[in-house]
Amino acid sequence: MSKQLVLLMMMMVTISVTPAIQCMELRAGNWGVSVKSEKETVTNLQFYFHDTLSGQNPSAIQVAQPLDKNKSTLTMFGSIMMADDPLTETSDPKSKLVGRAQGLYGSSCQREIGLLMALSFSFTDGPYNGSSFALMGKNSAMSPVREMPIVGGTGLFRMARGYALAHTVWFDPTTGDATVGYNVTLVH
């Protein structure tokens, strides 16, 4: 066969398969759905982030602190935490594990409790298994709802952009442990 004929056949196969892929819908139980249009896919995810600083097996630990701790006691300005937090389907920490949030966050504000979040949300369940997205932005932790940008992704979320809305479901001021609901919209 000539090179032109092989190339033509490959193009015809690609064109015939493409429309089937462009109208695909993925479901992940009650916590995610993707609808792919002809150009882009919009995915909405709802899950819960469990940040545990206390106990025998914390999911986040302090890796840096300010030199003068007395100057930043209220906002913890200068403190940096490393996290490997579980993501679950419901606010119950014993509910189905759907992934992990891994990375760091630090207190970046002197006059409010504000965190700079740099986390990779990696999924281990359903059709999103092996895919992740990156969140990078300010989290004004005392606001009822916080919006943070999504700046990229891998796997099914490759080239993702979008936003995450976070709201605190539960917080223990003594330990710093928290459960935060995330509603994430991704365009990829």
UniProtKB/TrEMBL annotation:
Places the protein is found: Secreted, Extracellular space, Apoplast
Organism placement in taxonomy: Eukaryota, Viridiplantae, Streptophyta, Embryophyta, Tracheophyta
Name listed for the protein in its UniProt record: Dirigent protein
Pfam families the record matches: Dirigent
Assembly and oligomerization: Homodimer.
Name of the coding gene: DIR23_1
Domain of life: Eukaryota
Task of the protein: Dirigent proteins impart stereoselectivity on the phenoxy radical-coupling reaction, yielding optically active lignans from two molecules of coniferyl alcohol in the biosynthesis of lignans, flavonolignans, and alkaloids and thus plays a central role in plant secondary metabolism.
Signal peptide: 1-20
Sequence similarity: Belongs to the plant dirigent protein family.
Key words, A-Z: Apoplast, Secreted, Signal
UniProt keyword annotation of tRNA-binding present: no
Main location: secreted
